[in-house]
Design a protein that fits this description.
Blueprint lengths: L1 H13 L13 E7 L6 E6 L18 E6 L2 E5 L8 E3 L12 E8 L2 E8 L6 E4 L3 E5 L13 E5 L7 E8 L10 H17 L5 H21 L15 H12 L4 H16 E7 L4 E4 L8 E10 L1 H9 L21 E19 L11
Parallel strand pairs: 1-15, 9-15
Antiparallel strand pairs: 1-2, 2-5, 3-4, 3-6, 6-7, 8-10, 10-13, 11-12, 11-14, 14-15
Helix pairs in contact: 2-3, 2-5
Length: 363
């Protein structure tokens, strides 16, 4: 989510004359989601100039004073020495409770950022129609005519602004967009290796080979459809499986092949959508499932800050004007200080070869 917030903040600050991109002064950017049972964590960044976003920079803000106040009690969040820009406390010291309001204050040099959130009441999933689904290839291109494979229902928290549903493939791994520059580094190293062959010592070439092997190993481990047992997950749709298989045979550089793989997995591994507050049921649709294997369906009851951000980011589905950027509730900076409660369940997805869509219920 951090890369997305950085990009949205960049859009919000840089929209002006389409032929002239300005570089506004950096602003504080906060990201914090409070939820009961989890350690409170506040991540601080500075916004980036437009020409720096895709370089892999994240501009962490170190040395800030980060304070959370609730019911008259003040908590100072120390910075994690292992992660610049991350401020946190154990939940045992700063408990997050439903119904309570938490105020955030961040001071850094001349900047003062403030925000507040009220944690929604607990949400509980009360009914699930099935925890296994079979995907039949016959219906791969007929999304508009499909019957939904399952539904779930939940209790209604009184103070939730709306719901966010996240459907995530649990066995597929990928990297954030901030890894893109590393794919360029791989191509650069390979080009050097080719040019220097026969011109430098064997030791120098061996050092290059180690760096190349390290990068390839990093991508192979983190951008993969490989399961823990060594088997490869299949795409549910033949067309997507074919596109994935063809990447290897393309006349592309190694770096571009890894970029294409990362982007395809990033676009398809997680599907998220919002549901209005007056609804107490949801579907998990065929269109949200891309791979065989296990999925986790997470239902989040969101506070106003989180829900407004989610429904207006990149225009969301709200129709909000893109020139205005996402709707944020932060004074003195940008970003999100929100909260939610959640419940979840797992769905196992299988690929069938024929027949009508059906539910397979495990008990």
């Amino acid at each position: 989510m951090i890369p997305c917030l950085l990009f949205l903040a960049l859009l919000a600050l840089s929209c002006s004359n389409p032929t002239e991109v300005e570089s506004p002064p950096p602003a504080l950017l906060v990201q914090a989601y409070l939820t009961p049972g989890e350690d409170p964590r506040v991540t601080l960044r500075h916004t980036l100039a437009p020409n720096q976003y895709y370089t892999g920079r994240e501009n962490p803000v170190s040395g800030a004073q980060v304070e959370v106040t609730s019911q008259g009690q003040r908590y100072l969040l120390p910075e994690d020495p292992a992660e610049p820009g991350a401020y946190l406390l154990p939940a045992a010291q700063l408990p997050i409770e439903s119904g309570r309001t938490y105020q955030l204050q961040v001071r850094h040099r001349q900047d003062l950022l403030q925000a507040a959130t009220t944690v929604p009441d607990p949400v509980r999933i009360t009914e699930i129609s099935a925890d296994s689904v079979v995907y039949f290839q016959l219906f791969g291109d007929l999304f508009g005519d499909l019957t939904h494979p399952g539904e779930f229902r939940w209790t209604k928290p009184v103070n939730a602004a709306g719901y966010v549903v996240r459907v995530e493939s649990m066995q597929v791994r990928t990297l954030y967009i901030t890894a893109e520059p590393l794919t360029g580094d791989l191509d650069t190293l390979l080009a050097w290796r080719q040019r220097l062959q026969g011109l430098v010592s064997a030791d120098s070439l061996a050092a290059l080979d180690r760096r190349i092997a390290d990068l390839r190993g990093y991508f192979s481990e983190n951008v993969t459809l490989l399961q823990a047992d060594g088997d490869t997950l299949r795409w549910l749709r033949d067309r997507e499986q074919q596109d994935w298989d063809e990447i290897e045979g393309k006349d592309w550089t190694d770096g571009r092949k890894w970029r294409e793989r990362r982007q395809k997995l990033d676009q398809n591994r997680v599907v998220s959508y919002w549901i209005p507050a007056d609804t107490l049921r949801g579907d998990y649709w065929w269109a949200g499932l891309r791979f065989e294997g296990e999925y986790q369906v997470v239902l989040q009851a969101a506070d106003q800050n989180y829900f407004d951000y989610f429904t207006t980011a990149f225009n969301g589905l709200s129709g909000d004007d893109g020139d205005k950027g996402p709707l944020l509730h932060v004074e003195g900076g940008l970003g999100l200080f929100g909260s939610y409660t959640e419940d979840s369940f797992r769905v196992q997805v299988y690929r069938g070869s024929q027949g009508q869509p059906k539910l397979v219920v495990r008990r």
